[in-house]
Amino acid sequence: MSTESTPVHTGIDPLRQQFRQAMAHLGAAVNVITTAGVHGRCGITASAVCSVTDTPPTLLVCLNRSSAMHAVFDGNRNVCVNVLPASLENIARHFAGMTGLSMEERFQLPVWDEGDNGVPVLRGALASLQGTIVEAKDVGSHAVMFVETHEIRVRSDGDSLIYFDRNFHRVPRAWKAAAGQ
């Protein structure tokens, strides 16, 4: 196996290409971000999510502005960040558009609860953080949205799902088992 890096995307700026390759090596939790409201209901799979502060509890979510769903999120402002366990990889694939399931069919799956303002909350999520987009800033091709959370649900079991090297991977809770917890 060669350790040389090979270009994955052609026809784009070499620096941008290198950046994408470097980001493929940044493992990140897999999330399905959902919204519902007067602008419609939709969801996306995203790994560009992180905490900002706990006072008030705020997350940062990045969404491509050229996506048709950007306008729905921006208009509704109410969202739920669902942190996926490994057992729900198929949900991540559906919301990443990898399976051909329509948006309506994705929300007809028997895995959803209705949260505040009708926002879909994933029943089996490791954590579900409902909140409101309180600020958004355009940075290049993406909108960086700050979501102030007001309702949080957390599970104490389940393995994590991460995205690394352009693939989904299961991360077991081995440390709890090893610690006897």
UniProtKB/TrEMBL annotation:
Protein name: 4-hydroxyphenylacetate 3-monooxygenase reductase component
Family matches, as InterPro entries: Flavin_Rdtase-like_dom (IPR002563), HPA_mOase_red (IPR011982), NADH-dep_flavin_reductase (IPR050268), Split_barrel_FMN-bd (IPR012349)
Domain of life of the native organism: Bacteria
GO biological process: benzene-containing compound metabolic process; pyrimidine nucleobase catabolic process
Any Pfam family the entry gives: Flavin_Reduct
Pathway recorded for this protein: Aromatic compound metabolism; 4-hydroxyphenylacetate degradation; pyruvate and succinate semialdehyde from 4-hydroxyphenylacetate: step 1/7
Gene3D superfamilies: Electron Transport, Fmn-binding Protein, Chain A
Domain Flavin reductase like: 23-170
SUPFAM superfamilies: FMN-binding split barrel
GO molecular function: FMN binding; monooxygenase activity; NAD binding; oxidoreductase activity, acting on NAD(P)H; riboflavin reductase (NADPH) activity
Keyword Flavoprotein: yes
Keyword field contains Oxidoreductase: yes
Sorted UniProt keywords: Aromatic hydrocarbons catabolism, Flavoprotein, Monooxygenase, NAD, Oxidoreductase
Family assignment from sequence similarity: Belongs to the non-flavoprotein flavin reductase family. HpaC subfamily.
SMART domains: Flavin_Reduct
